[in-house]
Amino acid sequence: FNRIDVEVLSVIAQQVITIQLAQQAAKKNFTFEGCDIALDCTCAVFITMNPGYAGRTELPDNLKALFRPMAMMVPDYGLIAEISLFSFGFSAARPLSKKIVATFKLSSEQLSSQDHYDFGMRAVKTVINASGILKRQQPTDNEEMLLYRALQDVNKPKFLKEDLILFDGIMSDLFPGVQKPEIDYGRLMDSLSFSCRHAGLQPEPSFLAK
Asked: How far apart, in Å, do the first and last CA atoms of the chain sit?
């Protein structure tokens, strides 16, 4: 909700006040934005938001005064990851879920702070979904290897060059003995090289891999 511009939020506050006043007066019809509309007395407005999160705006005071705040618990990422991995058919869901949580925890502590970095629940779910797709495509492959590849595919493209080194160190610590899988992207690499040359860029292997 707080992705919306402050100016628009102020207009919304006036609209919410109109609805709340009509409810308090127990009206069956009321005038809203110049239109006479029926009022459902059981209607309510709820806001979900991430205050202080990158790219979000603070609620204006006139809107904040109309709502009652409610605290939310931080979700158990490990339990959510474990259940989700089980649903995708992973037999070693518990130890793998711990590796996912540890990867993002260490990344948030060791990597640089960038606006586009996200180590929260959204990132965890993206990795789980990527792991599930790989599990469906390669049901007999080593599950640790599938998770390793999902973590690499999801995270590496968004990391800066300096952070890639740190991330590789985190991965080698959490996945000891796991060899980096050789992935055949087929015609995708040829298309990337062609697009780079067409745009006047050099198709460096590190850039293509990223």
From this structure: 33
Cα→Cα distances 15→6, 9, 25, 66, Å: 14, 10, 16, 11
R_g (Cα) of the chain, nearest Å: 24
Residue 121 — very low, low, confident or very high, per pLDDT cuts 50/70/90?
Answer: confident
Closest to 16 measured CA to CA, from 33, 28, 38: 33
**Chain segment 154-194, per-residue pLDDT in tens:** 998 888 888 888 998 999 899 988 877 677 777 888 898 88
Q: What is the pLDDT of residue 8?
A: 83
- CB proximity list for 57: less than 8 A, separation 6 or greater: 2, 3, 4, 5, 6, 9
CB atoms inside a 10 Å sphere around CB 91? 9
Sign of the dihedral through C-alpha 154, 158, 159, 161: positive
